[in-house]
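Take our chain:
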Amino acid sequence: MNILKFFKKDDEPSFMVSNKDFSVKHPFSSSIEELQFVFSQIEKRLDESGKIYDATTNKTVVLLSISIGLMTTLTAYFFINNELKGVFSPKLFTVFVMSFKSFFILFYLSKNILPTNYHPLGSKASLLLNKEFYIDMKNNETLKSMIYSEIVNYDSRANDNFQINEKRLKRIKNAIISLIILPLLGLVIYLLSSLFCFFI
């Protein structure tokens, strides 16, 4: 998607950008070296967002493995020991709730490995080899326009990526907290269900 729109005003080329946060609305007031420096910085930021994405994916896989193992163990225990005699068992009820909670954690974390609109480094050639970069421009102006286009493009990608990473990190944090309190939750459920059996 081309983020620059070429138009002519008083025979001077200008560019309108889609990112309202940019105070510099066209590249011709900056030198090529200045634009290249800015591009190198935003490229590092986009690359960092990719590294965070990979790290969160690895953490998610570990937590998914723990959740799957826990849910499988609890579910197997429940079906092996459930004799369907119609008698309420605090122990089996606790195991059932904990296995359901493990399944919820598994489902919640699975969102982290589903396909997302994540933006990688690099741009399509069709976006760069665009006639808008060549109309009534000198060679250095064309290069400036391309670099500026990539600066705005990469900045938008990096912002989107960091928003995605923030959501993924929040899911990981919540999943870790849930796994930590799961044994305590099981203990509370067991005690309450035992008291329930005692009074009925």
About this structure: Residues 1-18 have pLDDT under 50 and may be disordered.
